[in-house]
């Protein structure tokens, strides 16, 4: 120690003790295990003599294992519940999308029905239609076919309503009953008044028809 340091120590006796304390703390900090903390798990149980208590240790291990298994099951159950919820959400969204698509197709068909009805009325009078200029008639018929193709591409089809077909209240709307004595014609279609349309099995407009009705 230099003369100058000696003089300082003589002037302040606490300086020596402070230096010694800092050196001691530094040594203890160096000797501490950096990995050691309060979260260290004790795997073994010891008795009062400091010896491992195998029975108590085994009991502790079993308890820890049971708790771990319980925790694992809780995580698994939670994951399964979340997965089921997601699957249900996905199914609901798909169903909602399908319903919206059907509604959009229905609106599309409804928008075209007045034009389709006008075509049918024009084509129904064959004699008058044949008198129309051929080139103009060909163009109109081509447009009509394009409209029908657009309906078909969207899954929209005409309701079957042929003369002689048995009437089906699910797809046909009876407008007038035509009396007949022929029992074989009873409850069959006599004529088509207005075409009906459907999407898949769903009828969006029934076909309007006249129906034969047998007397007595």
Structure description:
Strands 1-4-5 form a 3-stranded antiparallel β-sheet. The protein has a domain at 156-216: Head domain of nucleotide exchange factor GrpE (Nucleotide Exchange Factor Grpe, Chain A, domain 2), CATH 2.30.22. The model is unreliable at 4-15 and 28-41 (pLDDT under 50). The longest helix has 71 residues, at 54-124. Helix content is 57%, strand content 15%. The protein has 5 helices and 6 strands. Strand 4 and strand 5 (202-205) form a beta hairpin. The chain is α+β, with helices and mostly antiparallel strands and 216 residues long.
| Adjacency order of strands in the biggest sheet | 1-4-5
Terminal-residue CA separation: 138 Å
Our Rg estimate from Cα atoms comes to 47 Å
Overall geometry:
elongated
CATH superfamily of the domain at 156-216: Head domain of nucleotide exchange factor GrpE
How many strands, which pairing sense, and closed or not: the largest β-sheet?
3 strands, antiparallel
Strand content: 15-25%
Notable traits:
single chain; 216 residues; alpha+beta; Nucleotide Exchange Factor Grpe, Chain A, domain 2; three-stranded mixed β-sheet; 5 helices; elongated
């Amino acid at each position: 120690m230099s003369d100058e340091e000696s003089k300082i120590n003589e002037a302040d006796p606490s300086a020596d003790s402070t230096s010694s304390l800092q050196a001691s703390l530094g040594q203890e900090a160096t000797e501490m295990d950096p990995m050691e903390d309060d979260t260290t798990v004790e795997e073994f149980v010891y008795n009062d003599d400091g010896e491992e208590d195998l029975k108590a240790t085994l009991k502790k291990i079993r308890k820890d294992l049971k708790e771990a298994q319980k925790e694992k099951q809780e995580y698994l159950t939670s994951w399964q519940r979340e997965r089921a919820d997601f699957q249900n959400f996905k199914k609901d969204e798909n169903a909602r999308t399908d319903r919206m698509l059907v509604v959009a197709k229905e609106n599309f068909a409804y928008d075209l029905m007045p034009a389709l009805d006008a075509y049918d009325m024009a084509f129904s009078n064959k004699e008058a239609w044949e008198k129309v200029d051929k080139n103009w008639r060909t163009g109109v018929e081509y447009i009509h076919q394009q409209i029908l193709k657009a309906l078909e591409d969207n899954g929209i089809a005409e309701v079957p309503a042929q003369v002689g077909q048995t009437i089906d209240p699910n797809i046909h709307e009876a407008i007038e009953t035509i009396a007949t004595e022929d029992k074989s014609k009873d409850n069959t279609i006599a004529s088509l008044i207005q075409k009906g349309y459907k999407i898949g099995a769903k009828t969006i407009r029934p076909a309007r028809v006249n129906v034969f009705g047998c007397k007595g």
